[in-house]
Amino acid sequence: MERSSTITITGAGGQIGYALLFRIAAGDMLGPDRPVRLRLLEIPQGVRAAEGAALELQDCAFPLLESVDVTVSAEDAFDGAEIGMLVGARPRGPGMERADLLAANAGIFGPQGAAIAKGAASGFRAVVVGNPANTNALIAANAAEGMPEGRFTALTRLDHNRAVGQLAEALEIGAGAIADVIIWGNHSATQFPDIAHAQLADGRTVFDALADRMGGPIAALAWLDDVFIPRVAGRGAEIIEVRGSSSVASAANAAIEHVRDEQRGSRRGWTSAAVVSRGEYGVPEGLVCSFPVISRGDGEGYRVVEGLDFDPRGRALFEASVAELVAERDAVRALGVL
Ligand code: NDP
């Protein structure tokens, strides 16, 4: 048995939290030999739901689950934590302006960043799920004085997985045969799902396979622009329309895969995650932007895969998404948060 890990989940009484906790406790995230201690952080209105989930966790008698604590104190929740999954966020209410949303979330992610800086373990790493995830991660990273900002990432793995799922359906192949899809930019409708470098297990490019199937490269390009990109970027709204509420299990699954790959090493090819830019691909330093990333599972976290080229159309889509991240950062700066 490996040593145990302490994992703090914020918004743990919410829907995504409920879909996360049992899989983490079952070993789906850190493996079958790694015991886990769970810290569930909630606001007072969410505490009973989190306590209920804790009772159910006890009733599962998971062999890997060492302890579950529910708290409303960020300092208690992050004290000694090694992994943070920051799910709780303020949803956009009716008539709420973007500045109000950013201010409300700054009031959540700023204090959490400070609590992390104060008490988290030296190797701590966090993934932000709560929206606007990229900018919430930026706020937390800035508030976590003394902690390297690269420890904070934001989730674009669900967008990545959605893109792979759409390609698998179009090509009538298993999702596992597709590698090297990329989500660039913000976790929002401006994201750029890019298949320019994507490949199949048989060595063909995804684009060639699409062109073969759709009757040529022009038809494949039209499908990418008219169907694929809007479908991936708008999938959240599609789920809400069909299911009657937002995606939950797929979001939790993506968060688990994000942390699993970061901690234990990514698999074939690369994946996508929003990480703090060091200027890669011309993205302003410090923005939390989605890139192609790999992890060796050596404690160093995700590294951006550099040197990939864009066609002019792809470059323009990426730049539009980065411009949105810049606008979010500037709006937060205007609030005096950064
Ligand atoms: P969910 O668990 O469904 O969602 C939580 C967050 O994840 C939301 O910000 C949501 O964004 C975001 N998210 C990111 N990607 C996705 C996706 N693909 N699909 C759906 N959501 C996604 O929300 P609940 O309201 O059920 O639960 C939130 C919990 O957080 C509540 O229990 C609340 O009490 C708690 N909370 C805790 C805080 C804390 O610990 N300090 C602070 C604030 C809230 P979006 O809103 O855009 O769907």
Q: What would you say this structure looks like, in words?
A:
This protein is of the alpha/beta class. It has two domains: 5-154, Rossmann fold, CATH 3.40.50.720; 157-331, Lactate dehydrogenase/glycoside hydrolase, family 4, C-terminal (L-2-Hydroxyisocaproate Dehydrogenase, Chain A, domain 2, Alpha-Beta Complex). 45% of the residues lie in helices and 17% in strands. The protein contains eleven helices and 13 strands. The strands form four sheets. A six-stranded parallel sheet has the order 3-2-1-4-5-6, sandwiched between helices. Strands 11-12-13 form a three-stranded antiparallel sheet. Helix 1 (15-25) links the parallel strand 1 and strand 2 (36-41). The mean pLDDT is 96. The chain binds NADPH dihydro-nicotinamide-adenine-dinucleotide phosphate. NADPH dihydro-nicotinamide-adenine-dinucleotide phosphate binds at residues 10-11, 13-17, 41-43, 45-46, 49, 87-91, 108, 129-131, 133, 158, 236, 246-248, 251. Pfam families: Ldh_1_C, Ldh_1_N. Residues 7-147 form the Lactate/malate dehydrogenase N-terminal domain.
Query: Roughly how many Å is the radius of gyration?
Result: 20 Å
Q: What's the total count of β strands?
A: 13
- Residue fraction in strands: 15-25%
CATH class of the largest domain: Alpha Beta
Small molecules held by this entry:
NADPH dihydro-nicotinamide-adenine-dinucleotide phosphate
The termini sit apart by 42 Å
What integer is the average pLDDT? 96
CATH homologous superfamily grouping of the largest domain: Lactate dehydrogenase/glycoside hydrolase, family 4, C-terminal
Please provide the ordered H/E string of secondary-structure elements. EHEHEHEHEHEHEEEEHHHHEEEH
Question: What is the helical fraction, as a range of percent?
Answer: 40-55%
* CATH architecture verdict of the largest domain: Alpha-Beta Complex
CATH fold group of the largest domain: L-2-Hydroxyisocaproate Dehydrogenase, Chain A, domain 2
The coarse silhouette is: globular
Indicate the low-confidence ranges by residue numbers: none
Strand order of the largest sheet: 3-2-1-4-5-6
Structural class: alpha/beta
For the biggest sheet, the summary is:
6 strands, parallel
Count of separate structural domains: 2
